[in-house]
Design a protein that fits this description.
The chain is an alpha+beta fold. The chain has a single domain (4-148), classed as 2-Layer Sandwich (Alpha-D-Glucose-1,6-Bisphosphate, Chain A, domain 4), CATH 3.30.530.20. Helix content is 21%, strand content 46%. A hairpin with a 4-residue loop joins strand 4 (65-77) and strand 5 (82-88). The chain starts with a strand and ends with a helix. Pfam families: Bet_v_1.
Length: 150
């Protein structure tokens, strides 16, 4: 059994792809106000939430447990409404050598499709793939969509 993998989910949402991309590209700090699953976010290092060298600290509920990690932006592709994040440290660092989160907003005639992908490498076979994180993204996306479509 491989320690590396990739899991993805596509979620149909009501808000436009542009609204979703704008939130994650320019207002990431607002996510904590749009979903109950994020308890706290703070700028850990750097002066700007959206600079590639900045590091943010997140406190969330994953699999019913309060979980902490740090995050930095790896790349932003505005043309394709795609952002790649590197998550590390805290609870993620205890389980995964690599944890890359990829957000993509895809236009539809009405609303959009939000695609979340997680590329990971577990530290050992005793660590489960990050399905709980995918459930967190699915539920959180529904909560966020309720605010964005308004």
């Amino acid at each position: 059994m491989s320690l590396s993998g990739k899991i993805s989910i596509e979620i149909e949402v009501h808000a436009t792809a542009a609204k979703w991309f704008n939130l994650f590209a320019t207002q990431l700090h607002e996510v904590q106000n749009l979903t109950n699953r994020v308890h706290e976010t703070k700028l850990h290092h750097g002066r700007d939430w959206h600079h590639n060298e900045s590091i943010k600290q997140w406190t969330c509920t994953i699999d019913g447990k309060v979980t902490k990690c740090q995050e930095s932006i790896e790349s932003v592709d505005a043309a394709h409404k795609r952002i790649s994040y590197k998550l590390f440290g805290g609870d993620i660092g205890n389980k995964y050598k690599v944890f890359k989160l990829i957000f993509e907003a895809i236009d539809k005639e009405s609303g959009a499709i939000i695609k979340w992908s997680i590329e990971y490498e577990r530290i050992g076979k005793e660590v489960d793939p990050p399905y709980g994180y995918m459930e967190y993204l699915h539920t959180g996306s529904g909560e966020i969509d309720g605010h964005l479509k308004a």
